[in-house]
Amino acid sequence: MARRKKIYEGKAKILYEGPEPGTIVQYFKDDATAFNAEKKDVIDGKGVLNNRLSEFFMTGLNQIGVPTHFIRRLNMREQLVRNCEIIPLEVIVRNYAAGSISKRLGIAEGTQLPRPIVEYCYKDDALGDPLVTEEHIAAFGWAGQQDMDDILSLALRVNDFMSGVMLAVGIRLVDFKIEIGRVYDGDFQRLIVADEISPDSCRLWDIETGQKLDKDVFRRDLGNLTDAYSEVARRLGVLPQSNVNKPTLIN
Ligand code: UDP
Whole-model pTM above 0.85? Predict the structure, then answer.
């Protein structure tokens, strides 16, 4: 079989040309990076877990009518997704203060925010993904006004869905990051949720104990990352060996 064409290699994923036009194969690596890749490691099994977890979240979103790039999982580490033009923004939604907002505004980690706060960062590793305002986004043409309305609405719907799914298994969704892509259907264009949704891009805290079950375990050296992600997958019934208590959502 001919070797398939690599389109892009990022910190945690590799993208290959897909089998049909307009598709891409997304391969999940075991590499973990933090602080703009200053801290790096290879975490056995992380890619397999994120492939499964992203499939689970994206499938659920598709089912409730929030469009995503996800088509189907291909194997342990790969999924078929729709090719789209990624809008160069990291869209962050926060329910509780943690990480950069706590540092920036001096709010204690874990403080519930008065309402979900949506922030935008410009996707540029060399600049360290700086926080930007809608003024910058409009002035530099990264997204139009209609796009921004659609992005906000998608972000809040993803937040409601993810918060509910997590709450049902005793996990608090503190914050998360999504990326948005543009697709063309004939003469129409629309925005869809792209990239991945996994514990690499969310903050997830056990509601009872406050235990961190996300990439902060790696960032802050709090223990074994695979154990944390496996716990999320186990509670959601995503791991094959825990099918017994599988929630109806993924049936
Ligand atoms: N996040 C991400 N990729 C990034 C930056 C942030 O997935 O490049 C996620 C991060 O995991 C967290 C949320 O976005 O769930 C908010 O991150 P924050 O701005 O607090 O940044 P950090 O403290 O991670 O630098």
Answer: yes
